Amino acid sequence: MRKKLWICLALVLIIPGLLFTVSCTTTANEQEGETSDQPADTPDQPADTPVEPVVGASDGTIKVNTEGMTKEQIFYNEHVYFEFDKASLTAYGQEVLTRKAEFMGENADVYITMEGHCDERGTNEYNLTLGDKRAQSAKSFLIDLGVAANRVSTVSYGEERPADEGSSEEAWAKNRRTTVVSD
Amino acid sequence: MIRYFIKPAIVCTIFFILILTHPCIADDDNYNYIDIDNPSSRKIPIAIPVFVNTAGSAADSPVFKQMSDLMIESLEFTRYFNVIDRGAYLVDPVNPAITRDKVKFQNWSTIGADFLVTGGLKLSGNNIKLELRLFDTVKGKRLVGKGYRGTVSDQRQIIHRFCSEIVRHFTGSRGIFNSKIAFVSTGTGNKEIYTCDFDGHRPKQFTNNKSINISPAWSSDGKWLAYTSFLKRKPDIYIKDLKKQEKGAVIAKKGLNISPAWRPGKFVLAATLSFSGAQKIYLLTGTGKVIRKLTRNWGSDLSPTWSPDGQKIAFVSDRSGNPHIYVMDVNTGQTERLTFHGKYNTQPSWSPRGDRITYSSIEKGSGNIYVIGIEDQDPIRLTDKSGNNESPTWSPDGSLIAFSSTREGRSRIFVMTSYGTDQKRLLALPGKQSNPKWSPSFTK
User: Fold this and answer.
1) For the segment B288-314, what is each residue's pLDDT rounded down to a tens digit?
2) What is the CATH number of the domain that holds B387?
3) 3-state DSSP: chain A helix, strand, coil percent, rounded to 5?
4) How far is B259 from chain A (nearest CA, A)?
5) Does this complex have an ipTM over 0.90?
6) Among partner residues A126, A154, A157, which is closest to B302 by beta-carbon distance?
7) Across-strand partners of B182?
């Protein structure tokens, strides 16, 4: 059941992702370069399609473009990203988790697993502990915001389930993450 | 020269039988073992001509060359020997001599072969009767002589038995010929655990669960293999009986259950568990029961490796802010930091000789293999500018180190001497190979 869900999710994520990766990234860069709020020339996207995360220009921070997503889609698709070999939350990570805590407050039937992931650099076993710490720090933050501890499980996949198989700074940044999976 | 094959009662067994032909200890005189691990010492020059047909009739079988070539390959694998090229041999191809009274030792010493292995092979149908001798060509002496019987399919075991004798003659240790290497390969699309012979031959898939399987660990008697698997969608430790392939215990506490390491001589292992919240190393029975918590400091502790006497572990901890290697006496709890250079030292493996630890260090984005002496604490880098190098593991005699490297693109397993010389690829299978773990020597 869960597997099926994963496959569906993966298809929904990957195929349009592959199609629009190039244009999305360009769009982000263009937007940053512009001073006006005028939306750039975006390709047509189905409303329910999550977008590939976008790497920011200078500081390497990474965000998921949640434009057009429902609250629920944002909850499951907006990941928390980390710095290399760090399990502490960035300011933006805390912002994302605050949104997740709000969503869980509004939806009492939601039980989740936070999956901790790492980039391929570093060694398997160490990355399993690092992924565990990332998932734990995300969970603690949710608990601090009032989410009941029994609603959040954690698991670490270390470097074993990259979101991006590449070996670039951008791929690594996308892979250092915790994701939310419905229980 | 007397040699005689004792016919044992179990001659019908399909397995080969080893018979000591002659008590050759007397021949060994006062040979001093040299430190042939040290790359500055010269490799031992040895000649291994194609085995001779002793059946009397002309037998034209590829087995003669196959078996003698396998001996060359196996001895070269140890990195101790320089096998002299057959093109240089000054032997009579029609009537090659294999016994001490017939061998013209000068023909061998002249071409620089200080040592000579001769083989006399009698092939009848599928059955093999093989006499093997090691000579010192300078002294004109036979050093080792053995007779073996078996079938053609036993040829690897037969050759490796005699290779063990040769290596024991020079080093005092039987070497690596009875060992295996476990590793992780992604050929099926999933990380599954495989095993192969010490030389990369006969790879076999060990796990087949379409999940993520990593960190194989051999028990010191070679009976058990523990590994980490995501079979239940979280990292748990599985323990399997290698012979029976039976399911053993599963360590599946809440959180992480990773990096198993068997205590030498015991059905006990150390592993990292996080059920208490913190990632700590615990001592567990082979049936998965916690004996006690071993590490207590702040930070994560993982990847334990045992000293050969089973009294200490080396492990990774980030208690100083970055991952480094620490050594702990498991009886007293006394712990000392071993590595101080760099910012990312993980994957320690304690030498079976006890004196050194190998580990990987990530510097400028790529990993290199180091060894460090327990006493002098002086790290020596063994790999350089050759992709990402990880997961070093000692051969059971402490002479070689296997590791994974991306120097050829995809991650493959390589083997080198413990001084970093003679780095060669072990095998290449579909997908990527990583996480090698060398077994102990199996005693049969």
Assistant:
1) 999 999 999 889 999 999 999 999 999
2) 2.120.10.30
3) 45, 15, 40
4) 7
5) no
6) A126
7) B195, B437
